[in-house]
Structures are given as C-alpha cells and as structure tokens.
Amino acid sequence: MLSEKKLALGIVGVGRMGLAHINNYLAGLMPSVEITAAADTDPSRRTVLSEKLPGIPFFDTAQELYGSGLCSAVLICTPHYLHPPLAVSAFDNGIHVLSEKPAGVYSLQVKEAIAAAESSGLVYGVMYNQRTNSVFKKVRELVRSGEYGPLRRVSWIITDWFRSQAYYDMGQWRATWSGEGGGVLMNQCVHQLDLLQWICGMPEKITATCREGKWHDIEVEDEVFMFLEYPGGATGTFITSTAEAPGTNRLEITLDRAKITVNDASEIRLFELERGLSDCIVNEKDGFARPACKCPDVITDGTDPEHPAVVEAFAQAVLHGTELVAKGEEGINTVDLINAAYLSSWTNSTVTVPVDPVLFKAELDKKIESSRRKTRVTESVDAFEIKKYK
Fold first, then answer.
1. Is 378 a residue whose pLDDT tops 80?
2. Quick one: pLDDT at residue 289?
C-alpha cells in the first residue's frame, strides 16, 4: 500500500541525473519522498541501483514500472526526446510527473504532454531548479515589481560551459539531432533561457546564428548568438558557447529607472536612477547630462536549494496541493525559444515566437534524417533507438 505521508516516487532513467536525485534522497534532502522503484532500459543500471538502494524493485522499461502499482509519481531522467512520451504514458496510467529539463525537444510533443496532464488532472512539473536560486528570485522580484519601469534591454553572456570532445563522446545520443535534439541551447542553456523568460517575459521575435560543430566534432550547435525583440520595443541578446575559457556568466537588465547586473549567478548590483531614462532623454536641457544614480545593497535570502527543493515542492503539490517551482505548461516557453533560435538560424531569417510548430518539426526531421551514428562512445544509450519516440 502506498504511503499517505510520503510521495511514492519512481525514477525513470538511472543515468547521471537519476543517480544525482537518488544521492540527494539518500542525503535526506527529500523528506517528503520515498523512492519505491526505478526503471532503465540499460540492464547494467540494475547493479548500480542495488548498490544505492538495496531491495528497491528495478524494471527494464518505464511501462513495467507504471503498471507495477508501486509509484504514485515518477521523476523522468531520460534523454530529451523521451520526456514527453514517457510523461503522457504516466498520465495515462494515473501517475503524476516531474520531468527533467527540457520539457521536450519540439513544441508539438510538449503540447501533447501538457494536454495529457490537463485531461488527467494530475500534477505535472519541470525541473527548473535555477528558479530556487535566491539571486534570480530577487532579480525577478525587482523586474516584475514595476517599481523601475518597463524593460528596455537585456543581455546574457553565458560562455562558462566549456566542454572537451570527450564530453560529447560520452553517449551515442549526446550532441546529435536524432538523440539530443540540439546542443548548447538544448542542453546547457535551458536553465538560463528559462530564467530569461521567467524574469523578463517572452520575446516576440528572434534572429539567431547557431554554429553547428564549429569547435567540436559534433553535428549540433556549440556557439550561439541570439537577438531578441520584445513587445513594446525592448531588445535583448543571448550569447553562449561551449568552447571558451575562462568563460563569462553575466546578466545585464536595463529598465527605465534602473540597471541590474548579475555576475556568476551570485553577485547582484542594482543601480537606481533618480530620473527615468525616458524622461531624461526628452526633458533634460544639458546635452551631456546623465541621470544620477545610487547603488543600494540588494539583500536576498541567501538560499540555493537546487534540485531537492524542486522535488520537495513537487511532492507537496501532489500530497497537499501547494505550488510547484515550475509547472509543466511553463516548460514549453523555453522549448519555444530554442525552436525559434534554430529555425531562425536554419532559414537565415527573423522568426516570430512561437514558431509554426509543424514547420519546425519538418525542419527538425531533416536534421534527424542526416544525423550520423557516432563511432566513439562511452555510454550505451543509442540515439537511433530514440527515433521511434518522435
């Protein structure tokens, strides 16, 4: 019989992230959760699980786990393309879902998962753990408060994702269109893109250049420049790479009456203007005068509970109806941004957000069909076996 006091949770995918969540559980960081089962298509993971959680049932497929009656919820930690179909199947079996990021690779499949969650009435969450960082929570509060006026410009340079070729050789699915569905945007920058829209809202147009295999022997992008256009005239840039060292992580937001900077996801500086930029531009008589500013201290709660906090919030949402860190339907925003960046780069054009989902899927399919089987890998998950889920 399932516990009424703790959430009976199954882990689908016992790879790096699945094991990371299991380690957090063993460290006592998920007091509202009881891991009751796990599943992975790689039989070698059975031994790994038995070492971590002796006696916990292991299943060769998610479907077997879903039908076992051992779990009321699952945490999906598989390659990206599998997130939506595994979520839909879980909902069909009356099981709540917390999905690792991203919610999916393309918006059509994410919409299917959202629709399945809505029709089932079950809880659907996405693992956007960076939303628990006190720095970004504070920045969102400052921007969304309206105290400093509307957004004028945002810029995020996030190039501290350096990866060697060995990283990309770690799995058959990794850094392929057929297995991972993208590169630095889909893998590393999902969190920053989620934070960008969480803080500043969604842009309405994107122009992007995504360089595929520029610095590594991969078929997906390892360097990106995005230009964003927001409703009301604000603009933004997003620059990222997995081939720079030392890298930079700097977020800069200009509002009408303030400027906010964040360095290395830890240091916030707030510049409060005594006059709004719009007012000063129009009414200032001195052609060289600038609005005076002050720099008050910005106080945060100092916490950064990361993945365990998302799992705990998910458990509380299932058990007691409280709020999630990130709802499943919010997961499509980041997918829309990535899809728009890819389509813009592939077509050498400015695209509206969200893009035509059917058009994007057709263009993605062309990439998938040209996807090549990798010859040097250190993990067994095969990108070409994932194709059937798309």
1. no
2. 94
User: Which pLDDT score, from 0 to 100, does residue 171 have?
Assistant: 82
What is residue 379's predicted lDDT score, i.e. its pLDDT? 65
- 207's CB contacts (< 8 A; 6+ apart) are 226, 227, 229, 344, 349, 350, 351
343 burial level (CB within 10 Å; 0-12, 13-18, 19+): buried
Q: Is the dihedral of CA 107, 108, 111, 117 positive or negative?
A: negative
**Collapsing DSSP states into helix, strand and coil, what is residue 58?**
strand
User: Rounded CA gap, 38 and 14, in Å?
Assistant: 7
In angstroms, the CA 240 to CA 226 distance is 9
Beta strands at 58-59 and 33-39: parallel, antiparallel or unpaired:
parallel
Closest CA to 225 of 162, 171, 158: 158
List of residues 6+ apart from 386 with CB closer than 8 A: 79, 81, 82, 173, 178, 179
Evaluate whether 363 touches 231 at the Cβ level (below 8 Å): no
Where b means 16+ CB within 10 Å and e means fewer, 56-81 reads bbbbeebeebbeeebbbbbbbbbbbb
Confidence grade of residue 384 (pLDDT, cut at 50, 70, 90): very low
Locate tokens 């004028």: which residue? 152
Supply the pLDDT for residue 372.
80
Mean pLDDT of 101-119: 97
Which residues contact residue 133 at a Cβ distance below 8 angstroms, ignoring those fewer than 6 apart?
265, 304, 306
Instruction: Say if residue 246 is preceded by a cis peptide, omega within 30 of 0.
Output: yes
- For 339, the token pair is 């899809």
What are the start-end ranges of the H helices in the chain? 16-26, 45-52, 62-66, 83-92, 107-120, 134-144, 165-168, 190-200, 277-283, 306-320, 331-347, 357-369, 383-386
d(CA 134, CA 266): 9
Q: Is the pTM of this model over 0.90?
A: yes
Separation of alpha carbons 371 and 48, rounded Å: 31
Measured CA to CA in angstroms, residue 74 lies from 33, 83, 89, 100 at distances of 11, 11, 11, 11
**CA-based max dimension of the chain:** 77
